[in-house]
Design brief:
115 residues; 5 helices; mainly alpha; 58% helix
Length: 115
């Protein structure tokens, strides 16, 4: 049992991100196809909840800990969903292939929606 989640692990970026991803996927899976759209909102809620819970137990911090907790929640959310990385299609060479140009794909865009 000590090898799974612990309170100190949930307070780390890695542990909080993993818990956020797991919770969103399990709850979204239980909801079925309708849960696909809800996963991002579930993940955001869990990430913010973990961040504010961690801030609540921070004894040495002042009132600014609640503002910092909000941004830490966004970091947890982005790490859990991988939105801090460029989409895989943009990691290719910058020169477009002839087949892609023929299909109307042109050059790869720098930023694509992950939604």
């Amino acid at each position: 049992m000590n090898d799974l989640f612990t309170w100190p692990a949930l307070g780390s970026l890695t542990g909080a991100s993993a818990a956020t991803l797991l919770t969103a996927n399990v709850v979204g899976g239980l909801l079925g196809p309708a849960g696909d759209k809800a996963r991002k909102w579930i993940a955001l809620g869990v990430a913010l909840a973990l961040s504010y819970l961690t801030a609540a137990f921070a004894a040495d911090a002042g009132a600014e800990k609640w503002i910092i907790a909000f941004f830490n929640g966004l970091i947890i959310f982005s790490a859990a969903l991988g939105i801090n990385q460029l989409p895989p299609g943009n990691r290719q060479a910058t020169q477009a292939s002839p087949a892609r140009i023929a299909q109307g794909g042109g050059e790869p865009r720098y930023i694509r929606s992950w939604v």
